[in-house]
Amino acid sequence: MDIARVTGSVVATTKTPGLSGRALLLVQPIDGSGEPTDLPSYVAVDRVGAGLDEVVLVAHHRAARLAVDADVEVDAAIVAIVDTVDVAGRATYRKE
Amino acid sequence: MDIARVTGSVVATTKTPGLSGRALLLVQPIDGSGEPTDLPSYVAVDRVGAGLDEVVLVAHHRAARLAVDADVEVDAAIVAIVDTVDVAGRATYRKE
Amino acid sequence: MDIARVTGSVVATTKTPGLSGRALLLVQPIDGSGEPTDLPSYVAVDRVGAGLDEVVLVAHHRAARLAVDADVEVDAAIVAIVDTVDVAGRATYRKE
Amino acid sequence: MDIARVTGSVVATTKTPGLSGRALLLVQPIDGSGEPTDLPSYVAVDRVGAGLDEVVLVAHHRAARLAVDADVEVDAAIVAIVDTVDVAGRATYRKE
Amino acid sequence: MDIARVTGSVVATTKTPGLSGRALLLVQPIDGSGEPTDLPSYVAVDRVGAGLDEVVLVAHHRAARLAVDADVEVDAAIVAIVDTVDVAGRATYRKE
């Protein structure tokens, strides 16, 4: 799963049926120190009520659909809100 | 899902049967500010009537086929036309 | 699907059974202007009689097998020969 | 499978049900010499009792779920603790 | 499929059951000229008796399991030993 920060959201009126009513958040992958990685940001369906600037875990492809609905056209889903990240035994992130 | 801009289209007469009659658009992944990311452009099947320069969401692999047809040789599909992108609470893109 | 140029071919005598008799072409992903992208070249099974230097579309993973055979160990297949690429309303590639 | 080093761990209270009780480790892909590659770190479910700084193999997507549970929203799993890496006939890593 | 060179091997005693008895080789993706690409090296299960320094084809995800066993936690498999690579009609690699 990617560790990522929620940076924004997307609104789309014209969409395929399976996306109807899904919360579409923009996420930026980060490393263990909270810095953005080289991976570009992308859009994931939120399943855990994540808010702006929160650090989350994002599952991809079928793993995403297992958290949303097996038959919908979704390939990324936010599956956890991160409380703490520890790197080398030291907390590098702690949710406020 | 990738957030991407429609930059062009592709015509192919010689193709496998499952691609017959599909609208093949060229898309360039962008970030929340609308700038191209490092990801290269690629071809996606359009499911929502997207036009040139529009910002769209693209689903991949099985998610793409769930929006097109489960048994066709398609690995990317445009599943939404984006109306607005908000980053850090500020609109960075608004469809005209 | 990747848009790519056929740059060569590969011969392999020792291979798993499902690859037997498959045309194995080397392809280089390109952008809408025909320039190589940062993606490295890779090997795809040809399904459309593509020739050297032709611009093609390549499908990946299960999409590739849907164009070849659902149960073979293939993860990339050439599924179309591109006639034209249009970017911003202008032809950037036209098959000769 | 990626060869990677365990660099840390993640705690998440709010998560989808399938992640409940899973050990979530942060891993950094490395090359045969033990140096970090350009791939960013990510989170994988541990299946083998891996510890901090250990070199491990990580399987992805369905391969990860085959090591965890076929129906959970997991897309990366640690499936082996590496004892030795040999490159060009020379040991470049040996677990202590 | 990736075209890659076998650069080494990995030994792991502690692993999930499906990896038991599998030959785990380290491979480095290369381009048509035999030069390493930007893709990092990774570990693949050997199905064809590949040796050190040989050029091989590697299949990924389900394609890999179709060459190994559909239900094992493997996401990359060596499926062919390359005899020759031709680029632009000229042999750039020939197995000795």
Order of helices and strands of chain A: EEEEEHEEE
Largest sheet of chain A: 5 strands, mixed, barrel
- How many helical elements of chain A? 1
**Quaternary status:** homopentamer
Give a written overview of the molecule.
- The structure is a homopentamer of 96-residue chains.
- The first copy, chain A, is mainly beta and 96 residues long.
- In chain A, the strands form two sheets. A five-stranded mixed β-barrel of chain A has the order 1-3-4-6-5. Chain A has a two-stranded antiparallel sheet with strand order 7-8.
- The first copy, chain A, has one helix spanning 62-68; strands at residues 2-11, 14-15, 24-29, 42-46, 55-60, 76-81, 84-87, 90-94.
- In chain A, 58% of the residues are buried.
- In chain A, a hairpin with a 2-residue loop joins strand 7 (84-87) and strand 8.
- Chains in contact: A-B, A-D, B-C, C-E, D-E.
- Chain A binds chain B through residues 7-16, 18-19, 24, 26, 38, 40-44, 52-53, 61-62, 64-65, 71-76, and chain B through 1-3, 29, 31-32, 37-39, 47-49, 57, 59-64, 66-67, 77, 79-89, 92.
- Strand 7 of chain D pairs antiparallel with strand 1 (2-11) of chain E.
Task: Describe the structure concisely for a colleague.
5 copies of one chain form a homopentamer. With 96 residues, chain A is mainly beta. Chain A has one helix at 62-68, and strands spanning 2-11, 14-15, 24-29, 42-46, 55-60, 76-81, 84-87, 90-94.
